[in-house]
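To illustrate the input format used throughout this study, we show a single complete record. The first block contains the structure-token representation of the backbone; no residue identities are included at this stage. The design step must infer an amino acid for every position from geometry alone.
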């Protein structure tokens, strides 16, 4: 994604203002929408609502069958760095890849985890999301998008990988749609049919 898009376009609506100027010239993270779109943090849940997806593993790979891939990111004191790790390219569509990109960008925007301190503050306020009762530096949150289900793993230790965004498809051929919004209108992928991506296409579509 380009720095210009981060500066001028809201990541959660169609707002676009070419006259707003360079609001954050020293950073690559997105800014909060001037139209008042809420932070993605208000939509994160501490209880997993798609445990069956995590438990349904592929016998050969050991990964969940519906896992598309994950983003791994770390904060170096100045900015976030990330790397994509594709998993099941044959189930990933262009819409899903764009949504993964969008969710990651919202997570590191200035109204969310704009730095490690912001992540720590949010996690400390949600102690129930801690992965272990005696551990206060690893947390798990969950989010439902239009096309994907997301497991957001936060590690608040410095000098470590701090953010893992795992993405899973809500739909697979011959299987029921998963998620709390499963009864909502069909997604574009359902309407148009599955148009899967190669590993290179998947990596290129994700934010760098």
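Output of the design step:
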């Amino acid at each position: 994604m380009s720095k210009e898009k981060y500066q001028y376009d809201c990541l959660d609506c169609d707002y676009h203002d070419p006259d707003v100027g360079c609001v954050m010239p020293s950073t690559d993270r997105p800014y909060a929408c001037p139209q008042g779109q809420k932070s993605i943090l208000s939509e994160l849940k501490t209880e997993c609502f798609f445990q069956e997806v995590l438990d349904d593993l592929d016998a050969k790979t050991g990964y969940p069958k519906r896992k598309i891939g994950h983003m791994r990111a770390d904060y170096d004191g100045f900015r976030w760095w990330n790397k994509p790790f594709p998993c099941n390219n044959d189930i990933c569509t262009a819409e899903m890849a764009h949504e993964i990109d969008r969710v990651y960008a919202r997570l590191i925007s200035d109204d969310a985890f704009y730095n490690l301190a912001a992540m720590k503050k949010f996690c400390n306020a949600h102690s129930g999301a801690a992965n272990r009762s005696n551990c206060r530096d690893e947390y798990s949150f969950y989010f439902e998008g239009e096309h994907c289900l997301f497991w957001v793993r936060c590690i608040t230790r410095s000098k470590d990988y701090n953010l893992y965004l795992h993405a899973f498809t809500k739909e697979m051929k011959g299987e029921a749609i998963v998620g709390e919004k499963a009864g909502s209108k069909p997604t574009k992928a359902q309407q148009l049919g599955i148009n899967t991506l190669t590993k290179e296409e998947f990596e290129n579509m994700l934010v760098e």
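Structural context for interpreting the output: The first helix runs from residue 3 to 8. Helices lie at 3-8, 51-55, 94-107, 116-124, 188-192, 199-205.
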